[in-house]
Amino acid sequence: MDRLVIESILAEAEKIYLSDEGGNAGSDAALMLGFKEDHAEQVANAFKALKNVAGDKVVELVICKTLVSGIYDLEIKTDALDEPVRVLNKAIANDLLESIEKHLQKNKEIVLGSNVAAKESWITLTDAQVKECPVKGG
What we know:
It is built from 3 helices and 8 strands. It is of the alpha/beta class. Strands 1-2-6-7 form a 4-stranded mixed sheet, with helices on one face. The protein has a 4-stranded mixed sheet with strand order 5-4-3-8. A hairpin with a 5-residue loop joins β3 and β4. α1 packs across α2. The longest helix is centred in the middle third of the chain and has 15 residues.
């Protein structure tokens, strides 16, 4: 599956939340992307494809602050891809962002999961951070 196809599928995420279900990879938390049930098969395939592409390479997540308060871009980076998988313009509440940052201060490892994809396809992120990202000119 192509990176752009994965991006377009993950762009359908309707919400982002933290779950304490990250135990399958040694992490005590999972950053979850929430989707409608009718996207379940596509999302599951996108997660499997991303996990397969990454293989045993390091996978990182950067939550980029945008110019609009409360709106963030997510970048999933791995050396296995020429460019990050970008999930753009997602609302993240301040209290959730604070919870994510607190978790990351204690443990940089977190799992990226989905409400409609099996745990086996969830992706262990070896590093995650919230930061200002350079604005890409168009």
